[in-house]
Design a protein that fits this description.
single chain, alpha+beta, eight-stranded mixed beta sheet, five-stranded antiparallel beta sheet, 15 strands, 31% strand
Length: 326
């Protein structure tokens, strides 16, 4: 009931009467009044005016099930939500739920992560209230070899959500980071449970720095929070809802051909460093070249000095700007 009342108040231009809410929810006005008081206790500023009704004035920056559900405009993405005050890793929790039969589109959220994970086994801590920590369960009917492209689909979704919801000129640092002002605001990690020929489930996790007060020393030059860029603390529930809306749209486009052919142009428009010199750092070879954007399989195309086009696979290398992180 909380999420429905929050949605009704959030979509209203003015006041919503207790009678309207009770009729909408098929409950008594007393029940509505009790929920309104619960929301006030949770930090929602709700104005109550006799003969007019209720009007929401401000929301607390929380990532509860009710807060996010009240902002969603999706058909399936995020329609099942597990929100936790603290967890080792939202990807781990999503994996546990997926193994127990959780539906595609189930979204796991946490205020705090004590053992968050990054690419290549790196750890990532999420202090309470400092970031969006979310993981989405997918069960696509695609070959396992194509699962890695979903990292790029989520990257496109997060970049667009940061742009539309936060007004930040977010770009994608191939293959799994979102950057703004030349520094990282989000990392994405995709994990898969599969057999040789089919996928049991895929977990896509995203951690967005919304209001990180202090980055570890080794990250200070390469990471930044949305708060530092905009001067405002983003409404995390609204940002999560925007990410889900964008992802649902792009995921359904991806599934039409099971590749990025229909999303490639949009991705390359947001790709950081495209047309510029990048360093490709592989285990066997390191070289520089011009970034030509991604192909339909999500691989990065790099033009070497002799004109040859190298196809760079994300699992093999890291890519950096010639003068720094981006």
């Amino acid at each position: 009931m909380k999420s429905k009342i929050l949605r009704a108040l959030g979509h209203a231009d003015g006041y919503v009467s207790g009678q309207e809410l009770s009729g909408m929810l098929d409950v008594s006005r007393t029940a509505v009044w009790k929920v309104i008081n619960q929301l006030k206790e949770e930090g929602y500023e709700i104005e109550s005016v006799p003969r007019k009704g209720y009007r929401i004035l401000s929301r607390p920056d929380v990532v509860t099930k009710e807060a996010v559900a009240s902002r969603l405009e999706t058909k399936w993405a995020g329609r099942q939500i597990c929100s936790l005050p603290t967890v080792d890793s939202t990807n781990n929790e999503a994996g546990r739920l997926a193994e127990n039969g959780a539906l595609e589109g189930t979204l796991v959220l946490a205020e705090e992560q004590t053992g968050g994970k990054g690419r290549r086994g790196r750890s990532w801590m999420t202090p309470a209230g400092s970031a969006v920590a979310m993981s989405l369960i997918l069960r696509p009917d695609i070959p396992p070899s194509r699962a890695s492209m979903l990292t790029l689909v989520m990257g496109l979704a997060v970049a667009d959500a940061c742009r539309s919801f936060c007004g930040v000129d977010a770009k994608i640092k191939w293959p799994n980071d979102i950057v703004a002002d030349g520094r990282k605001i989000c990392g994405i990690l995709t994990e898969m449970s599969s057999e040789i020929d089919y996928i049991r489930h895929i977990i896509i996790g995203a951690g967005i720095n919304t209001k990180v007060e202090q980055f570890p020393e080794e990250l200070k030059k390469t990471a930044v929070s949305l708060h530092e860029i905009t001067g405002e603390r983003p409404d995390r529930a609204g940002l999560i809802a925007a990410c889900m809306q964008q992802f649902e749209q792009y995921y359904e486009i991806f599934l039409k051909k099971q590749d990025l052919s229909l999303l490639k142009d949009a991705y390359n428009e947001r790709l950081a460093g495209i047309g510029g010199t990048v360093s490709v750092l592989g285990t066997q070879e390191q070289y520089s070249g011009i970034s030509e954007g991604i192909d339909e399989m999500g691989e990065l195309l790099v033009r070497r000095e002799d004109g040859r086009i190298e196809t760079v696979y994300a699992g093999e290398v890291s890519v950096r700007g010639i003068y720094g992180y981006v």
